[in-house]
Structures are given as C-alpha cells and as structure tokens.
Amino acid sequence: MPTTKTPTTKTLREGSAQKRAAILSAARELFLADGFDRSSVDAVAARAEVSKRTVYDYFGDKRTLLQAVVDAIGEAMITTIRRTLDETLTDVDRLTGPADLEDALVTFSMRISTDMLGSAEYATLQRLVRAESGNLPHRGYNSMADTPDEALAERFAALAAAGLLHVPDPRLAADQFIALTFGVALDRLGSANAMEDTRVRPLVVEGVRTFLRAYRA
User: Fold this and answer.
1) Which residues 6+ apart lie within 8 Å of 210 measured at CB?
2) What is the pLDDT of residues 12-68, one digit of tens each?
3) How many CB atoms lie within 10 A of CB 160?
4) What span, in angstroms and rounded, lies between the C-alpha atoms of 161 and 176?
5) Partners of 216 in the beta sheet?
C-alpha cells in the first residue's frame, strides 16, 4: 500500500514565508494606494490570495501589519547599507595611498545616495512613515533605528585598527560622517539622490574631506 508523504517542517516554513511575503506585499500596495484607514484586512487577504484568518494569524491586527510592512522595508535598507559597506570599505589593503581612503568614502557615500536614498524602497518608507505616523507605535517611528549608524561605526573602528583613522568614539564619528554627507544634501537639497541631482556629489565630496581632516590617522 503506498504511503502518504508527510510535509516536512522545512516545507511548511517555506510555505509560511511565502504567505507572509504575499501578505506584506499586498498590504504595502494597498496602504500606499488607498491609505491605512481605507484598506481593509479583507482586501489585503484577497490581494494576497490567503484567508482573512491567515492575515490575523500572522500579524494579529492591521496596525501590527502596517508596522511589519515598515519594518520589512527598513530591513531591506539595512541590507543595502551592509552590502555597500562590504563592497567599498572592507579591503583595507587597497587603501594605502593618501587619496585611497577619501575615494573609498566618497564611493560608499555615492552608492548609498543612489542605491538607498534614491531608491523606490526609501521613498516608500518615507511616504508610509509620514502618512501613517498616527498608526505606528510612535511619531517619527524609525524601523531602522540606529542600525545604519552602528554598522558604519563598526567599519570606522576597523579602519582605525588598520591605522587609517583615529576615532576615539566610532559611533560619534559615524554620526558626524552622516551629518556631513547625506545630512547636508538632504537639508540643503531635500534629497540625496545623486542620480537626479548633480549638486549632491560636490556636497558629499566636501563632507568626506571635512570628516577626514578631523579623523584621518
């Protein structure tokens, strides 16, 4: 007699991950198109092709679902930051010449400006946080929190260990670097999207140079 194959735990987890992703994608589309208040759990379930009960089982309520959407976008942004750090500021052996570190920091900054701050994901995150602040845990809710700053601080500490920077307080150095580069562009231009505004790069370059005048070893 043939035996019935029982689904493995791994298969069940993959199915659950797919349903979760479908629910988050559906909720994100509806929250952006119709707003949080006008988007029903029934509509989310229908678009995700799951039952309404499944939405509640995964996320509990609509506000928790909104937070999960915002958090998922924030996690994608953090992944972009970490990947960019790995690709631009990890290989200390090539940062030997006087201009090498400056070039690497400018490259990192320009990559963040285009790959993250100029991305549709970042625009979506900003739009949701502004429009739905009353439905998030608190005003100014930031799903990324301090993670990007801390990731940059870790890389600055590594560069200091390699003798390239002098940073007694890596987290403070990271905060100041961000303020001098992306912060200046955002404050002055309202955007740090270097692909759309040629004025971003000169601001970033000058910010990197100012940072290095203070922190170069």
Assistant:
1) 180
2) 233 488 899 999 999 999 999 999 999 999 999 999 999 999 999 999 999 999 999
3) 17
4) 19
5) 165
Which phi and psi angles does 216 have, rounded to 5°? -65, 140
CA 31 to chain CA centroid, Å, is 19
How far apart are the C-alpha atoms of 171 and 177, rounded to whole Å? Answer: 10
Query: Which tens digit of pLDDT belongs to each residue from 64-93?
Result: 999 999 888 888 888 888 999 999 998 888
Tokens of 204: 């970033």
Return d(Cα 37, Cα 135) in angstroms, integer.
9
Q: Which domains does the chain have, with CATH numbers?
A: 7-60 (1.10.10.60), 72-215 (1.10.357.10)
Which of 142, 133, 164 lies closest to 35 in space, CA to CA? Answer: 133
